[in-house]
Amino acid sequence: MSGQPIAFSSICPAGSTPYTVQPGDTLFFIAQRFGTTVNAILALNPQITNPSLIFPGQVLCVPSAAPPPPPITCPPGTTPYTVQPGDTLFFIAQRFGTTVSAILAANPQITNPSLIFPGQVLCVPSAPPPGICPPGSTAYTVQPGDTLFFIAQRFGTTVTAILALNPQITNPDLIFPGQVICVPSR
């Protein structure tokens, strides 16, 4: 051998489509995502000798009889979030200052709260809900690159004052684009 990786070219038969395995994927998760079964995927991929052993970057053929799911349109008061490897609903809820129950209510397609996938788009309620900021404050949606310090400067206030209005922020260094927070009004 020359030490080069072996190139695997996957030409999928009619009625199937190629899928590149992502970190965290299992055949069960892929089957659920595509509305098929593990056995149907195995039938299209005879190179899989151990169904428990697939690798990120591996290209599999999956049945494509079902049309792909429609793009996610999030309702007002929520923001779309793409699940990252290692995410759980609990971590996403913490990140956005909401609850797992609120995320589940906004995403009725989730039938098993322990089963979310990297690349899956969820609608995450923005905390606090619109119109819930106390008098003397206003809702602000965190933008990419924002920090509490920069937001405080922009609104002529302090980080401490912002934190007092947002008890859901447990780590002042951890805010995310799309997150809605209350800031003191000028």
TrEMBL record:
InterPro entries per record: LysM (IPR018392), LysM_dom_sf (IPR036779)
Residues covered by the LysM domain: 17-62, 79-124, 138-183
SMART domains: LysM
Pfam families: LysM
PANTHER family reported for this sequence: LYSM DOMAIN-CONTAINING GPI-ANCHORED PROTEIN 2, MEMBRANE-BOUND LYTIC MUREIN TRANSGLYCOSYLASE D
Protein name in UniProt: LysM peptidoglycan-binding domain-containing protein
Source organism (scientific name): Carboxydichorda subterranea
